[in-house]
Amino acid sequence: MNDTLTNQSNRLDATFSRLREEKKSALMPFFTLGDPSCGVTLELLLRMEAAGADIIELGIPYSDPLADGPIIERASARALTNGVTLADGFRIAKLARERGAQIPYVLFTYYNPVMQLGVEKFFQAAAEAQLSGVIIPDLPYEESELVRIAGDKYGIHLVPLVAPTSSERIGRITEQGRGFIYCVSSLGVTGVRESFDDQVETFVKQVRSTTNLPIAIGFGISKPEHVRRFSSFCDGVIVGSAIVRRIEESLPLLTNPETAAEGILQICNFVRQLKH
Questions:
Q1: Which residues form a coiled coil (predicted)?
Q2: How far apart are CA 1 and CA 5, in angstroms?
């Protein structure tokens, strides 16, 4: 295997290891590729890193996003209307690296685009784009072995999701985990929430008892106080819908070349608030 590809795949491991030594938690913004354009996505990748993002989760737009709430569904629809594809994800990640981006990128995609391209070709392209991980929410653990093996071949982590409903399957899922374990904070699809059940911490402790991998939590986290709360017992906090909503609210700015920089600054200032 190409040594360069292998080394690049360790960005996730190195980031979590560094943050653990510093007794810090990773801030992991999520947003949708191509919403409202691939040019804006490229700038967000770079500016969010400067604003304090530790890892970025980049969502590939999909026509039937089963795990996504209405905010991210609308973002996917906007990107698909513009003809954005999986190939654009690899291209934009490469461009970000060429412009000096260093933090890990994790691709969030459904299984159909992976299958259409071919599992081997998918991971080869992901490695060439210096991606560090992939999340495939509609790929059941029981059917993931071939994808996980291909990811291992190219040094890219197949990150598993576990939810409170995973119950007795949690140990089997985390045993084959790579990179980190994505804990779903609540049932249902993604979306901004005002509050969370106190059982979330109990759930995370249950997951931690089954694995030494870092644990990140997502679904509904939208405020600095949420980030503070979950950072106290998780290795990473994922913020998605709240960021995508701000992108949606900033569309008049982002779609105008003369004001796009102002819109990007507003979104990155929100990320900076979450971080600090």
A1: none
A2: 8
Angle at 131 between CA 126 and CA 136, to 5 degrees: 75
Contact 244, 26 (CB under 8 A): no
Environment class of 231 (CB within 10 Å of its CB; exposed 0-12, middle 13-18, buried 19+): middle
Does residue 173 contact residue 159 with C-beta atoms inside 8 Å? no
Q: Is 49 a catalytic residue?
A: no
* pTM for this model (two decimals): 0.91
Does the pLDDT at position 8 exceed 60? Answer: no
Which residues, in sequence order, are CB contacts of 25 under 8 Å at separation 6+? Answer: 19, 230, 231, 234, 235, 236, 237
**Which one of 13, 49, 54, 68 is the catalytic residue?**
68
Work out the end-to-end distance of the chain between its first and last CA atoms, rounded to an integer number of angstroms: 40
Indicate which residue of 13, 35, 49, 57 is catalytic. Answer: 57
Q: How far is CA 208 from CA 23, 134, 162, in A?
A: 17, 21, 11
- CA dist., res. 119 & res. 125, Å (int): 10
For residue 57, indicate whether it is catalytic: yes
Find, among 177, 137, 140, 227, the residue nearest to 13 by Cα. Answer: 177
**Structure confidence by residue, pLDDT tens digits, 100-141:** 999 999 999 999 999 999 999 999 999 999 999 999 999 999
At 73, list the tokens. 């569904």
